[in-house]
Input
Amino acid sequence: MSESKVYKNYINGEWVESSSGQTYENRNPANTDDLIGVFQKSNEKDVDAAISAAENAYDGWRLTPAPKRGELIFKAAQKLVEKKEMISRDMTREMGKVIKETRGDTQEAIDMGFYMAGEGRRMFGETTPSEMPNKFQMSVRQPMGVCAMITPWNFPIAIPSWKIFPALVCGNTVVIKPATYTPLSVLHFMEIFEECGFPPGVVNMVTGSGGAVGEPLMRDPRVKLVSFTGSSEVGSLVSQACAPEFRHCMLEMGGKNGQLVMDDADLDLALEGALWGAFGTTGQRCTATSRVICHKDIVKEFTERLVEQAKKIKMGDGLDESVDMGPAVSESQMNTVLEYMEIGKKEAKLLCGGERQTGGNYDKGYFTQPTIFGDVTEDMRIFQEEIFGSVTSITTCDSFEDGINKLNNVVYGLSASVYTRDVNKAFTAMRDVYTGIFYVNAPTIGAEISLPFGGTKATGNGHREAGKQALEVFSEWKAVYVDFSGALQRAQIDNN
Output
């Protein structure tokens, strides 16, 4: 790929430059000398063109039989399989996470494509018996119209696939604004839709900043649904933008996920889980294990062993297969993480890390050390606030019940896990931990596409992505009654 390649927006089946005439550079966070490409710095006029294209394409797409929509989605999933390695390597360059993880990211999009393709032949409604004679009744799904997607940088193709594929199979058209830091992954997605023959205007992409692109996109009354993944602060703005016209919004926001390790746990397994959950994707996951809550009888041994393993993590360019952890996605994200490290040093006991990694090739990127804090209590900011970086904390609990209370004592409710050999404790935790995702003897990361993804409390607004539940976001129910009696029949009146 040419280092100076200029990429364009995808609107109405064509690759077009922004009407602003402006562009921005996208650089590798592991090595800022590596220019990935130049992307359009779009504006409200570009957003308007994309929404108009999606609106014009809507009737033709919603009237395309759902099985046919599913067949096109199946073709797109097959193309993702063919291009998996290319997409994954480009994703590592623009996002920073290691290649084995970006391969998993692309695989998740593949899985979602094949899953949602099948929904084109299911899309089940219900028939129920009427209380009146000679009357038939059923429920059917109907699409909503133009759907806007605003997606984050940490899963640059998986999360767009969670939104685009179910929206399309339900008969909606799409305008997506990819994260400013990771537009190339979504651009590759658009290339696949074009190659597979999706009608012009069904899928559109506009690159640029949240203020210039995201805000007009979420405020346009022609957009019937805004699907957003990102911070709780921005999610609140999305909700406010949709509220005046009662337009729908789906919000997937922050997390402060905890792993509870009981005194009867398999410590080797729990250590592996904490290490992967805390430092996989450099901790830049909404489901990252940013809190480890250990029973008092094992906290000392667990802490010593976790610190020992964290110090062995190899950082570097994610395209190097031997590297365990890549950089923060950007300088600003790195600085946020470094600020929290300083906060942690004042609040708790620093056990390892706590600095930017410098020297040699590290100076060309945004590397932060794997960092662990000990003696962390519930009132500390590093216990309560989402950091979104290579930082985790260890808190002691006195009992199983105390551990459950500590897991729940945050404003978020995305993911949690428990490590125990006691089946009774496992099922009690499954019942009592108030999160949208829960794991037993596994870390807080690792969701699969066949089950609903999302959280409680400040994590979301009640909707779920993935699984068949995603159809609830991107369609609305219609109840249909057919009276073939030839007479007026008044339900609840004529049958009492």
The chain has a mean pLDDT of 97. Residues 9-253+460-479 form a domain with the Aldehyde Dehydrogenase; Chain A, domain 1 fold (CATH 3.40.605.10). The chain has two domains: 9-253+460-479, 257-440. The first helix runs from residue 44 to 62.
